[in-house]
């Protein structure tokens, strides 16, 4: 019998439509190698100094000054400075140590989600990651919509704004989001340079505004007296003030946004020239510097802005519809420094708030391709930037319309996303410290975890809309992820197939005697009797020619929740039997991938032989989807059918 030869001439390539090539640009690149400031830079990329990268994450973190003082005044009233002090303490003593630990544990930008992924095996770890991705999506998407909404408020409230723009917050927000999407559709290569300029100008203008406000307060000390008298009139004792400040500070959680982004941008930090790629000590050191410097700068601005806005702005102006609602520092800029300076401040605030959305979008583009395609829970085109940009932009449009571009109404959802990520990071840091036997760090991180847990629960109770929005994101991610996993279950799912030297020799010997014939075998006892009985039954039931050599193929499923990996095939000779052994995520997909690789390597169409499995087809399908085995023969044939449409070149499947 002669073997079936494979025609080596590939079919002519069909040119893809120009729009499709543009939309899927970069799809052939590896995960997290896509354009964007948070993607893993190519090997030749030297990175940037830590302070420049700090400005990239700072467009998200520092831009909260645009709305945080107003939100603090609404939440805490005259006690806003005390609640802000509590927030600063939690930032410097809680969030900062946690994320310094996260930077050490995940120096390649994976963040706390990757730390938690390693804690739970099998499907439990994947499910946890999907839930955390839902909260992360809430955080990043609401960052875009809330920041754009606050930017539109600065546009509308500017005295030089045309009358036609008054009340047009919704349309202005949508235009800003569309502009943000256009930036990413074109490309996002020079983000750090733009971020440095925006952050530098914005912080400088805020220094001027706060200096003028402090000067006004010091020149009119009666303002401090009036504020203190009003505060003590509302609260009977200093202890009551502290208690109220502790109770309301969870509403101020927006002031801690940006830490997760700060870790995500780690691959952009230059570090030291001699850094070990696996454990880049210089990058870890400089990222910790980045996080510490940003936290100290932001803490100072938060405290001064809270004092200035609470003392100098009437409380009624913070309410919805008030002149300081969502733009407290801009209110002071116009009032104390004139309309011209106030307009310059507005333009700077609008720019950095708009670009804060860019930082959030880049975070999403770094996060989603890092996990979902690897799990098989998203199509391969999600590794490309532009389709994801369009999806996230559409979601942002819907959220903006639903909330009518209101900053106050979206703050609950934003705080929920931020706090869940911080809670997960603190918990992951606690577990990491415990695994390394660091008792003091374990106790400290455990206490921080409890504080973040309390803050999250309090925030959810007071503003359940945030949890509802996050649950919508989670349900959406779960449903689409599992639907994609089922849809992609019949792919080859192998990044590459590599044979060791023994496997190569066994294949050569078997191929020299005729067509390559492979028997699929479950790796049970692996004794001589089992192999002899298996070979005899297969020769009898599927009519393998007597005397012809056969190879046994055994697949070990290590983690069926994984989707794709590089397959390493090991050759073994045992009891006079030639065996190929390989570990994979699913038996049928692994067998099909090995057969396709054998065809490419030998130039012959291989034959694979199975026994039917007893049981109900539906239960076998569920076993395949969950455990990676089930009724192997028909699934292997289906995987091969999809991988090779040409019947002449498709590996032959025999079942007896």
Mind explaining what this structure looks like?
The structure is a single chain. The chain is built from 22 helices and seven strands. The protein is of the alpha/beta class and 656 residues long. The protein has a seven-stranded mixed sheet, sandwiched between helices. Helix 5 crosses helix 15. The longest helix is centred in the middle third of the chain and has 48 residues, at 328-375. It is elongated. The model is unreliable at 28-44 (pLDDT under 50).
Would you identify the regions where 5 or more consecutive residues have pLDDT less than 50?
28-44
Bin the helical content: 55-70%
**Strand percentage:** 5-15%
Q: Largest sheet, described in full?
A: 7 strands, mixed
Strand order of the largest sheet: 1-4-5-3-2-6-7
